[in-house]
Amino acid sequence: MSAVHDLGGRPGFGRIEREAREPVFHARWESRVMGMVYAIRRANWLNLDAFRHGIERMDPARYLAASYYERWLASLERTLPEVGALTPGAAPPPAGPYGFEREVGAPARFAVGSTVRVRARKPVGHTRLPGYASGKRGTVVSVRGGYVFPDTNAHGLGEQPQHLYSVRFSARELWGESAEPRTSVCIDLFEPYLEADPVPSSAEETRDGA
Amino acid sequence: MAHEHDHDGEHGHDHAHEPSDPEAARLALRAEALEALLVERGIVRRESIDAIVARYENEIGPLNGAKLVARAWSDPEFKRRLLTDARAAIAELSLPMGETATPIVVVENSPGVHNVVVCTLCSCYPSSLLGLPPRWYKSPPYRARVVREPRAVLREFGLELPESTDVRVWDSSAELRYMVLPERPPGSERASEAELVELVSRDSLIGVALAGPPAEAPRER
User: Fold this and answer.
1) Mind telling me the catalytic residues of B?
2) Cys-Cys link to B126, which of A46, A144, B53, B177 (CB 3.0-4.6 A)?
3) What ipTM describes this predicted complex?
4) Which residues on B lie below 8 Å from A188 (Cβ)?
C-alpha cells in the first residue's frame, strides 16, 4: 500500500489545471498559515521533517482534496500538540546548526558513476524515498554532501546525518515498456536508501543522460 | 477529485471579505483560532507573520531567477559559477531572498537537453529565490504525471520537444532546490542584460516553458 502523498508515477490523474494571473495567495487565511509555518520553523518549535510527517498522516481522501495550505494547517494542528508546543510554559528545543547540511562521520560509499539499487520504501513512518524508485537501478550523477536524515529526524530520533546523492534513472528502468523515449528522472536519495549494484543500469539509456 | 473553487475576476482571493463557501469559511476560522492560540502562548507574534507574508507577496519572486539567467547569458564566467556553486553566484547579485537553508542547484538546458523540476512527495520549490510556487506545481496531477510522462505534460504546457532531445526530470526529494537555466532564445544576441530579464518567465525556470518573448501567457481559462 503506498502512502497517499507519494504521488510520483501514480496513474489516473488528468489534466493539470493552470490559472492565469494567479495571486500569491487565494485567501487571507492561506497567507496566515504560510506565515505561521515559517515563523514556527524559524523559532525552532517544529522541524521540517516532523511537519511533513504531519501532512502525510492526513486522511488520504482529504489529502487529495485539500489545497496546499489546508495541508499545512492540518499538520500544524496535529504536530504542535505532539511536540508539546501548546503546553503552557513550553519552550522550543535549543536551535541546532542552521539549515540541513551536516558533517557525516563516515566517507561516502558511492561516487559519481556508481551503479546503485534502491532498497524497498519503508511501509510506515516518514521517508523521502519516492515509492516509484523502490528496487530500481540508477547511476549516481552527483555526490551532494551530508544532510539531516529525515527518516529519523521526523520521529524525534535525531538528525543522524547521511550522505546524499543525486541518482539518475532511465525512464525505461522506472516505467518499463510504457516509458517515453529519451527521458530520465533524477532523484535525491540518502545513502541508507541505496545499495551497491554491480550490474550497469540500463546503460544505453542513461549514458547520454549522465 | 474535488476541484477547488475558481477565482476568476471579481471575487475570491480578496483579503477584505468573507470566503463565500462554507468549507473556505471553516478553514479561515481554523487558521484564525490557531493563530490566536499561538499568539496568546507567545509562540509567534502577529507582526512576524505579517512581515513574512509581505515579503513573499511583494519582494521575493521569479524576477530573482530571471536576473540570474540574464546575467548567466551575458557573462560566461558567472554562468560557470552559477552551475557549479549557485549559492555563491546568487550572493553576488544581492537579490531579495527568503530563508536560504536549502541550497539551490541550477541545471542547464542546452541543445538536445531539456530539464524540468518537480517534487513528487510534497511540493519543494526554490521559494527562497523564486517566491511561492503556483498552484499547478503543487497539484497531484503535476506531481504524479511529470515523472512518468514528461513529454506529454510539457505538451500540455504548449512545449513540444524534438524526439532527439533528452528530457531530464529532477524530483526534489531532499533539501536541494532546483532551478532551470533555460536556453537563450534565438534572436536575442543583441539584447541588453535588462532586456534579457524580460525573456525569462517563471515557467521557464521550472522547465515547463522555454525562455522567450512574454506574449505566450496561457489563454485557456
Assistant:
1) 119, 122-124
2) B177
3) 0.94
4) 171-174, 176
